[in-house]
Design goal:
- The complex is a heterodimer.
- By secondary structure, chain A is α+β, with helices and mostly antiparallel strands.
- Chain A has a domain of 96 residues: START domain (Alpha-D-Glucose-1,6-Bisphosphate, Chain A, domain 4).
- Chain A is 23% helix and 34% strand.
- The relative contact order of chain A is 0.25.
- By secondary structure, chain B is an alpha+beta fold.
- Chain B has a single domain, classed as Winged helix-like DNA-binding domain superfamily/Winged helix DNA-binding domain (Arc Repressor Mutant, subunit A), CATH 1.10.10.10.
- The longest helix of chain B is centred in the C-terminal third of the chain and has 16 residues.
- Chain B is elongated, with a radius of gyration of 20 Å.
- The relative contact order of chain B is 0.15.
- Classes of the chains: A alpha+beta, B alpha+beta.
- At the A-B interface, helix 3 of A face helix 2 and helix 3 of B.
């Protein structure tokens, strides 16, 4: 039950004033997921089922550079956990880190935790990757999720 | 000569400090590579931060092919340090000395 959080992990969290079932609705389609998870890197592919492809794009428009992270959904367990692999395409990682979104009933609402973890699997420069992502995640996505779920 | 307040304003933001950390450890990076490391930010937001850092002369940008490559320029940091921060060093040293004396001093009686 539930994905074990890998040792090199970045964690962000937020307490949302809504039950897990309500929060989970924002995970249930590409459009809904894009509206909050895609507020940083753009969400370009997602389906709400295990085995589906998730793709995010850090690049853009203009300079022609596309920087894709992609992987399969490994756990889709309403209303508790969504986990997918996030391989930086063309970056030469040995194995992809995971992104886990975990919903836990807490204090009459839902604690949502975002883990970017198992970064140790990426290879010999894992410590550097971890430092980079630790500086790079904000609470922006979770804040957007909170606003949607509490509306 | 960039104004010192530009460096302070640029350094006030945690994302911009994280970008400087990234460039310090990795040398030269394209704007895209920097953006890749910031899942919480849109590419437009990263470009804006890079613009602020450029204007404060904390990063240098070179266009190679179709991509901009960024490197750290730590000289404005040296100005911040030597012109202003270092003037506080005697105060840190004084408080460290007091802490040391307290830690090594006679044990407080248990209540």
């Amino acid at each position: 039950m539930g994905t074990e959080i890998g040792r090199l992990a970045v964690r962000r969290s937020i307490l949302i004033d809504a039950p897990p079932e309500r929060v989970w609705k924002e995970f249930e389609s590409f459009e809904r997921m894009r509206a909050w998870f895609g507020t940083g890197h753009k969400l370009t592919k997602y389906e709400p089922r295990a085995g589906a492809l998730v793709e995010t794009d850090a690049g853009h428009h203009g300079d022609g550079e596309r920087l894709l992270f992609a992987g399969r959904v490994t756990v889709f367990e309403p209303p508790r956990e969504l986990t997918f692999e996030s391989d930086w395409i063309g970056h030469g990682w040995v194995a992809p880190p995971l992104i886990t979104l975990r919903l836990t009933p807490a204090l009459g609402g839902t604690l949502v935790e975002l883990f970017h973890h198992a970064i140790e699997r990426t290879g010999t420069r894992a410590a550097e990757e971890h430092r980079g992502f630790e500086g790079g995640w904000t609470n922006r996505q979770l804040e957007a999720l909170r606003q949607l779920a509490e509306a | 000569m960039p104004k010192r307040r530009d460096a302070f304003a640029a350094l006030a933001d945690p994302t911009r400090r994280a970008i400087l950390d990234l460039l310090r450890t990795r040398g030269s990076l394209t704007a895209g590579r920097i953006a890749a490391q910031f899942p919480g930010l849109s590419r437009a937001a990263v470009s804006k931060h890079l613009g602020v850092l450029r204007r404060a002369r904390l990063v240098r940008a070179r266009e190679l092919g179709r991509e901009w490559h960024y490197t750290l320029d730590s000289r404005p940091l040296a100005d911040v340090y030597y012109d202003w921060l270092s003037s506080f060093a005697p105060h840190w040293e004084e408080s460290l000395k007091r802490l040391k004396q307290q830690a090594e001093g006679p044990e407080q009686p248990q209540t």
